[in-house]
Amino acid sequence: MQTSDEIPLPAELKKTLRALARKYETADFLASDPSQFLRKFSEEREQEIASFIVAQISFGKREIFLAKSRSMFEEIARNKMKVSEWILSGKYEQFFPKREKKFYRFFSYNDMNALCGRLAQILQESHSLGEAVRKNYDAIPEKNFLSLVSALIATFPQIKCVSQNADGACKKLHMFLRWMVRQNSPVDLGLWHWASAKDLLIPLDVHVMQESERLGLLPPKSSPSAKTALALTRKMAQIWPDDPAKGDFALFGLGVDSDET
Predict the structure, then answer these.
(1) Which residues pair with 108 in a beta bridge?
(2) Most-buried pick from 10, 89, 146, 252 (CB within 10 A)?
(3) pLDDT tens, residue by residue, 38-95
């Protein structure tokens, strides 16, 4: 008996999703998306760290979290530093002083300080964030669809800003992984050649969920979870078997446009 994600998608829906992905996965996508910060630094080591911090606060009101990210990079620029230098030197302590006041939504300055402190430890122990994540990934004996996100979580144990339950939606982590793994994209960086785009899960945000339900890709009132992300990703694999996360652009872009009309 076929599971719901094994039922073949209608040819017309496949055609529509392909067209939407072509429409939205362009350099213009960067302008209003947190991915605009991915290329702020030219060195891969810097891009990884900057992207990871940005990903962790990319939720809620877009204009607010983009402004928060921008203010951090402006501070790094004022210090005339690379992001790794800003982290390793402890300069982040001036921007994220240890206090309970909220920096953004439910993340306090303390929480952001702890995130940067963990990044400093990682850079002291490994050459790069990617190298640290790869070590944890390689240590997983039996790989499955959660192995990449599990390796990422294992790199940031007990850090509040980082989702700690791989069975949850982990939208921000899956988005970061998309940035790091997908190749030949005008948006995603594709720095982690050791990982496969086949193993990425669709990041489940409000726009993706609402459009997936509207198009019949997910049942109504689906809950955001790894199980839901896997079901949706498997449907996208019917269109893009080697790169199912490409469907994220089609669904997310359509959702944003729908909200603005």
Answers:
(1) 102
(2) 252
(3) 888 999 999 999 999 999 999 999 999 999 999 999 999 999 999 999 999 999 999 9
CB 169 within 8 A of CB 204: yes
114-149 core/surface letters (b: 16 or more CB in 10 A; e: else): bbbbbbbebbeeeebbbbbbbebbeeeeeeebbbbb
Q: Which residues contact 72 (CB under 8 A, 6 or more apart)?
A: 53, 95
Instruction: Compute the distance between CA of residue 82 and CA of residue 48 in angstroms, rounded to an integer.
Output: 12
Helical segments of 156-205, H only: 171-181
pLDDT tens track for 201-218: 999 999 999 999 999 999
- Percent of the chain having pLDDT more than 90? 92
Q: Which residues, including other chains, have CB under 8 Å from residue 108's CB and lie 6 or more apart? A: 99, 100, 101, 102
pTM: 0.95
- Report yes or no: 255 and 20 within 8 Å, Cβ to Cβ: no
